[in-house]
Write a structure and sequence with these properties.
Length: 335
Amino acid sequence: MNKRLSWGVLSTANIGIGQVIPAMQQSDLLSVDAIASRQLEGAQQAARQLGIAKAYGSYEELLADPDIDVIYNPLPNHLHVPWTIKAMEAGKHVLCEKPIALDAGQARQLVAARERTGKLVAEAFMVRHHPQWRHARAQVRSGALGEVRAMHAIFSYFLTDPDNVRNRADIGGGGLYDVGCYAVATARYIFESEPQRVLGLIDRDPVLGTDRLTSAIADFGNGRHLLFTCSTQLVPFQQVDICGTTARLKLDIPFNPPPSAPARIVMDDGSALKGVAPALIEMPVVDHYQLQAEAFTRAVTGAAPQEFPIEDAVANMAAIDAIFRSASSQTWEAP
């Protein structure tokens, strides 16, 4: 590719400023050339901080820029679908933060928008681009774990600020939308299938109204289960265990490993219970946000197929919808 693909960022959200944009700026395939905020001063400050050429005081101005090819959308959850559609209708491809929508019905609107506009759209699950998850799936496929039957995941942090978007129920806050979605997406990635039924249990904050503690079982059929817990009010922690009949694989920091250190994978055939140190595998030092942006760039330019089309995001939302329904009905629900 002779010319770097030009990206614009829709809002000065913390995840973009602190993690995603700096990672994208390390790539030779793309350039971040514009950023927009509802206040011009905020956009200008972010542009100065990150060395971005253009700053806009409205989202509409950014979408009207003819030089921008792709939009990265890290807006609050309830704004994902409407502004992604506006961007696509303005002739831009869109990489949108997770969760892509507030339910599968909303997500399906993006399938229709893609068909109508011819523009690509994807959900930003950066974890699937990290080599530790690629390695994990390769191990499952190879039979190195035997027959894989269970995946256990936990993802938690502690946040009680009522003004934080993650704690606002009216705009899509709560643990399942914010971090539980990772467990669902990675289980679908590892099992390479969709859950047939789910069972959910939710504890809601009595003041905020958000799900502060959610646990779920997802039955993927053929004796394969995902069990996970996510929380916005527990000690910060994350871990994934993938268990087969002959071995297990543990990802120490599965969802946001630091880009400055190698991610670690533990392989154990049960010998750890006898005091034998399990095998430790270190992955290359990478930034999965950079890898994610480069993968989408290649898809947009036709250099590679889109590995995770928007239909994948619809399926993930369908599973999340079913977990919410199950927590209310107190019974199994099918996505």
